[in-house]
Amino acid sequence: MNSSLSILFALSSLLSAEFPFSHADELFTLKIKPLLTQKCLACHGDDPQDLGGEPSLLTRDDFLKGGESVTDLLVPGRASKSFLMTVVKWEDPDYEMPPKENDRLTPEEITDLVTWINAGAPWPDKSIQDAIKFAERKKKVTRDGILVETSGGLSDDWTYRRYQPDDLWAFLPLEPIANPDPAKHPVDAFIDLNLHQKGFKRAPRADLPKLLRRLNYTLTGLPPQPEQMTAWLKRLREGDYETEYRLIVDELLASPHYGERWGQHWLDVIRYADTAGFSNDFEMSNFWRFRDYVIRSFNDDKPYHQFVREQIAGDELNPDNPEMTIATGFLRSGPWEHTGMLAGKVSRQQYLDDLTDNIGQAFLATPLSCCKCHDHKFDPIPTRDYYRIYAALATTQPAEMKAPFLPSENRNSFAKDREHVERLLTFATTERDALYEKRESMARQWYEERGKTYKDYGARNNDPDGTKPPRHYGLTPTEEGQIKVREQDVKIWNRRLARFEPRAQSVYNGGYFTSPSIKLRPPSNEKQCKADKVLPENFILKNGSLDSPGEPVSPGVLSMLGLPTDTPSTDDPYALPTGFSNRRLGLANWIANPDNGLAIRTIVNRVWGYHFGTAIAGNPNNLGATGKKPTHPELLDYLANQFVQDGWSFKKLHKLILTSETWQQTTTHPEKQKLEQADPNNALLAYFQPRRLSAEEYRDTLLTFTGELNPEMGGLPARPEINREVALNPRMIQFSLAPAYQPNASPEERHRRSIYSYRIRGLADPFMEVFNKPGADKSCEGRDAPTVTPQVFTQLYSENMTNRSLAFALKLKQSTPSPSQQITTAFNLVLTREPTADEHTLLLAHYEDMLAYHKHSHSQPTTYPKEITRSLVEEFTGEPFEYQ
């Protein structure tokens, strides 16, 4: 348990009225019991004789009983008569406890013991102890000299550890934080306070064209159009700057492209992809609907606490609303599969483990998987709390649920895409059926040769004589392999047809079962319906193993926060419903509680990080001890409080940050060299740190410059062109190969914004990957931006860049026949400025050189393959075979 360092605060009259207990009860819970656990129970615990210790000190009765040699160990009300005080003061050389010099009690600890004994040595029951702890968590806590304890639930004590005060900052309740200088913008006031202490000032405001370009990218992920830039500059220079700047921010926040940009941030966190990953990598049909739900939510400025509830428990909030069914796609966002080589209950556990950790990282910035097998080594989270949240999800069953299409959902490409899928399905079905027909014909012949009557092909397995033709009788080794490939192809294309059905990747509440299959709806067979009526039992799994169940647990939340749920029991403030339904809703309500400082800090810290490139606390998925400490903790708490006061509005939070002079700073500083020595990572934010465009921004920018970007929003995933070698490279799907990647037929379909691109977990787009687009298997707390050589070669030599260059050149040529004017137009489009005289002269000379060079070159048109030949080895015969 934690040491006896003081917790410096007293119970308020309100809390005392809510939880009636004496000061002595509080003293025991907060100081005496932790002291006994740390200093005494190692030897005087469960079996003191086994450890050479005597007597036991586990209970008050044990204290009163004493031991064989000491009977007046504790005399309630009279510390001077209690031999315990002689022992801890080392006044008798034969009885000195604790026996090590370094473990001796401090004078303050001895005084606490005296006070406790003279008050009657109360030993409150568990419910009062937890009431005290809950009350303490709701009070103001100093940031120095505090170590916090938790019971890890309400049963036996767990492996309590010491925690440094600085490590607990994110778990503390939010307290009101005042603007340190009301004359300033609140963000600037907090930043200037730190800068002043270090002897620096903020950098000046950035040049207006650069600032507006930065603003446009930040809120929409796109470059500003030249005419838009010209209008903005005129307004800012001729009107009142503050007023006009705020209006421009409002315009960009109202843009539909805002939701596309900020929706991508959230999809990074929750690991969105259109396929399930692993060896099967099957399509998550209709998961595009969840992607569009996220974009709509940001554009509508949906309050964050509602956004949380809908994703975790939308089906429980409003089961008749298809939007809520779609929203719970969050619970399906991770990689998942089941194979015949894995027990169903193991697949089920893996799903729930992934879900538990994803909720912890996304909403609480706490990697809960760290305490799956043991109590968290660095944060005050016991294993019991992990399995209580796991139990809150235990009735969650993945399924493809019926959900009528919404009027706002884009179905424009359904007809064309369905035609494409059906054409490929017809091809695979025709190839398979031809092989089926040959196999059936040979089987008939086999029976006729033996004087038997063949009724149908399946009857051969039920021949009364036990005889039947060999497997795939009459087929060549190549045909044996081909029939399996075509069977797999038929499954794949049938699966893809589901994307046109009014379904959603979602969940429903069911009982205890281990069926790993993703159902198209809640199960209807008798066996499954019966199982769905049995509530799951949950246990602490020793070492995380299903084969080693330990103590039972019920649904609940993290006890460390001391924040009760909205359905607490009389002895458990952290309890959630135990029936089939509303477990997740209770968990979501607890996360979205305005008193949940951890959850609010988590999302505000993320938003700040996306605006500045680095979050206030540098690991947005981990605000615990192993994450980076906040550089401006008071600012973070100020913004978190303001976020709630402003109705959990993302747009208001954006505006608060973006209107600060801190965000509008230039990327240079008058004292840059001095700053690099004193603050090499720019933690003080004395200037604005330049940010690399993300992979999506880069691709979308290229298409914007060339005039090819299709601004259509939502709907089925687009299939852009990718590196041909990668597209045609064989990709394994269990026991077979996946069909080759096929881009959309028309440029308009291919050139949509990158957020709409078909995301296959097992097939990354090399162009996006080289510019640091993260994988979809793990939550991405922030994009990396390293500079690597392949990026240079990609920009110089890749087919994608060559095509964009040609498209850009064609656009410039169509705009004006003058090469000189084309250069000027190009600069305005790409860099939003005029070329210098030297740049113009250099590029015009380069143009003339290239014109002369290409007059003598003879390029050939590119031809694209319409079919490819694959090679595989048939698993039973070991024979190689090919197919088209």
List key phrases describing it:
32 helices, mainly alpha, 884 residues, single chain
Largest sheet: 2 strands, antiparallel
Q: For the residues shown, what is the average pLDDT?
A: 86
Topology, number of strands: 8
Strand order of the largest sheet: 1-2
Question: What is the molecular shape?
Answer: flat
Q: What is the gyration radius calculated from CA atoms?
A: 33 Å
- Tell me roughly what share of residues is in helical segments: 40-55%
Give an overview in words.
The protein is mainly alpha-helical and 884 residues long. Helix content is 44%, strand content 4%. It has 32 helices and 8 strands. It has helices at residues 13-18, 23-39, 60-65, 83-88, 107-118, 126-137, 186-198, 208-220, 226-238, 241-253, 256-270, 288-299, 304-317, 322-327, 344-364, 383-392, 414-449, 477-497, 526-531, 583-591, 597-612, 633-645, 650-658, 672-678, 695-706, 724-728, 747-750, 766-770, 789-797, 799-815, 819-831, 837-854; strands at 396-402, 503-509, 538-541, 549-553, 732-733, 736-737, 870-873, 880-883. The strands form 4 sheets. It has a two-stranded antiparallel ribbon. A hairpin with a 2-residue loop joins strand 5 (732-733) and strand 6 (736-737). Helix 29 crosses helix 30 (799-815). Mean pLDDT is 86; it is low at 1-21, 48-52, 126-135 and 137-158.
